[in-house]
Design brief:
The structure is a homodimer.
Chain A lengths: L1 H16 L2 H17 L1 H17 L4 H7 L3 H16 L7 E6 L5 E8 L2 E6 L4 H12 L3 E5 L5 H17 L7 E3 L5 H7 L8 E5 L2 H8 L14 E5 L5 H13 L8 E7 L3 H14 L3 E4 L1 H6 L4 E2 L2 H4 L7 E7 L2 H11 L4 E5 L3 H10 L4 E6 L16 E3 L7 E3 L5 E12 L3
Parallel strand pairs in A: 3-4, 3-6, 4-5, 7-8, 7-12, 8-11, 9-10, 9-11, 12-13
Antiparallel strand pairs in A: 1-2, 2-16, 14-15
Helix pairs in contact in A: 2-5, 2-6, 2-7, 3-7, 5-6, 6-7, 10-11
Chain lengths: ~400, ~400
């Protein structure tokens, strides 16, 4: 692992100073190669799928693992989109003269070496490699054991594309061993690895963070709330609530708890409940909710703290804005919260006071992702506040240094 | 410590939503109180000084520890300057409409609770408390044992100022125990403390980072280089080199190694050596340097890797730009590097390729500090690349969240 780290550190010198054209040439070559190698990729993936079936992987995992011609095309298209994004490296901002006469500014620079630890989806290999390269970083990728053959086949395409563009192959290293030990080593080598991004479930994130001596961009749960305020327009309230829960059940920006102003409970709960049930959502509510809707199961303390990732929703009536805020403060995972209200002052207070990576007024929590935010792609969604928060794209993989243009200034 | 953490976390809700006026009122009240309590501060400090003398603190440490009426006035003035800085909290940038119709922007928010661990200078207590409060954070301050009485006297002023402005006293907690155990506890309570900033020598930073489960904004050594390039204007080269070394010896942005283009060695080394020796600097050089200047002691491998913080300078001749870059890459601590050159392309390559928190063209490394950079004050200078890099002022104590203004948008 130290050898891998050393090679990555060395390659990072080349990726840091690579021109935009050179990086884009490598990315476009990668997209071409992925398409040209469709047969080899499908073959490698078939081996993983067979091994997965044999070892009894469940249907959902097998679905994530599978490559199809359409998925390979989408992977190539994703890489091409990253080539099309503006290059963050070298951008200079806030260049201004100081009283001493020096001109001070800030230049965006790569972090150096990025470690990515992920699970079964093989497309993450191409995606993560492309984001790291475009942001001028070298990367070390450690995918799931179940996707080993697929990842190695993608790695071969990446190596070829890097060479074709005159970049060192060590700029992207896809580990061909997947032991837990690899993870432990990656997060304890700060001299070689500048940041580690775990992409996967809570268990993976916890395992990676445990004992890490390298900064980790963490994505913990998405326990997201929508709050239907006293001044919520009725139709908008119902539409946003139903969309935030039902547009997709398994994503981290899906609403898990709905808060409804008590003053509007009798009016809003029935159409919300109807909309949810029409999409097969099981409802669990507080006592006040169950007085309005007797069909509902009672919500337990545990429900408020649960990321269902499933067609289950907890609903709670709140007396006022403060009560809504207090509930969010206690149970939110800091991912995404939304309010529906027509009242401007309330909207602005919610934006200011809710301490989550995305805070929304009159929009569905489902918008909280890198693609919708125009980052082009995301390496993850950070629920940390340090360094990067919310969807992390190219900018989150960079840092800024101060630059000074002088004309011989010395300090008196 | 957990109780202190809990109170800090709770107070951070109040500081996060405090208005600019309220925060500034507290800071101006603090400045007034420090001046009004001059007698009490001097008395407390006299106790620390007496204890320090008794326990055999050296003269430099006693000097740092001492409060005088002038130093108290400077401390009050520093706090007032922080009150005068723009409030970073709540600033919104890049508000723009996305194809979905939502308006997306980023709002600057406090980190939450900041822990500061520092050594003997009592003025850090007021300074750090003021920076944390202005940036909307609660803070937990742990000063040096030798400054305990002084720090407690300053803490009393802070508490009074917070109360006068209607802010919770727990917004700034100055620990009245200074055991190493306090440090260990602070860095292992991520649920209560969001970031820890050690202000002090390498030993302190290493002790704080060891086993930290909370992010640490680290400031390690300042092994800073000035590179006199082949195209350096002669007088500018000499002036900047002498200033970067001799304007102050003990600061982290002081030059410790001078690199001189071999093509200019015979021309530039004699006036540089004369300027340095006139200020009492001992010179240690490579073989080529010693051929030009026989008085010079030889520089060892260890010299290139040493932060002298003293009137000692190592000097090395470099064959070309690549050799200069390679030396910097190997020995620099990533703090501040400067080049002196009249050649534009070389200047721009140096700016891009040197991976330090400040990179300068034709200016003295001594400019690399928060005051010269217009941050008003600094909580430290980060040699990390993650989160904050270079002088860390109010912005480094904040994060940004995404905000979304919708008009009922749902995801299709």
């Amino acid at each position: 692992m130290a050898g891998i780290g050393r090679r990555a550190r060395e390659a990072s010198l080349a990726t840091a100073k690579a021109s935009t054209q050179q990086k884009n040439a490598a990315l476009n070559a990668l997209a071409d190669t992925l398409l040209a190698r469709e047969g080899a990729l499908l073959e490698a993936n078939a081996q993983d799928m067979a091994a997965g079936r044999e070892s009894g992987l469940d249907a959902a995992l097998l679905d994530r693992l599978e490559l199809t011609p359409a998925r390979i095309a989408a992977m190539a298209e994703g890489v091409r989109q990253i080539a099309g994004l503006p290059d963050p490296v070298g951008a200079i901002r806030d260049l201004a003269r100081r009283p001493s006469g020096i001109q001070l500014g800030r230049m965006r620079v790569p972090l150096g070496v990025v470690g990515i630890i992920y699970e079964s989806r093989p497309n993450v290999t191409a995606d993560a490699a492309a984001l790291c390269l475009k942001s001028g970083n070298a990367s070390v990728l450690r995918g799931g054991r179940e996707a080993l053959q697929s990842n190695q086949a993608i790695a071969a395409c990446i190596g070829e594309a890097l060479s074709a563009a005159g970049l060192p192959e060590a700029a992207v290293q896809v580990l061909d061993f997947t032991e837990r030990e690899a993870v432990r080593l990656m997060v304890t080598l700060p001299e070689y690895i500048d940041v580690v991004v775990p992409r996967g479930g809570k268990g993976l994130v916890a395992a990676v963070s445990e004992g890490a001596r390298v900064p980790v961009i963490k994505h913990l749960d998405g326990i997201c709330h929508v709050y239907l305020h006293d001044a919520a327009p009725a139709q908008m309230a119902v539409d946003i609530a139903v969309n935030a829960k039902t547009q997709r059940f398994g994503t981290c920006n899906t609403m898990e708890t709905l808060l409804i102003a008590r003053s509007r409970l009798e009016e809003l709960l029935p159409p919300v409940a109807q909309g949810m049930r029409a999409k097969g959502v099981e409802l669990r509510g507080c006592a006040a909710c169950r007085e309005v809707d007797a069909q509902m199961q009672p919500a337990s303390e545990e429900d408020w703290a649960t990321e269902y990732l499933a067609p289950v929703l907890s609903i709670r009536a709140v007396d006022d804005f403060e009560a809504a805020l207090a509930h969010i403060r206690q149970y939110s995972s800091g991912h995404t919260e939304a309010i529906v209200t027509a009242d401007h002052a309330t909207a602005m207070r919610f934006l200011r006071e809710v301490d989550s990576s995305s805070v929304m007024v009159n929009a569905s929590t489902r918008f909280a992702d890198g693609f919708e935010y125009g980052l082009g792609a995301e390496i993850g969604i950070s629920t940390d506040k340090f360094h990067a928060r919310g969807p992390v794209g190219l900018e989150g993989l960079t840092s800024e240094k101060y630059i000074v243009f002088g004309e011989g200034q010395i300090r008196e």
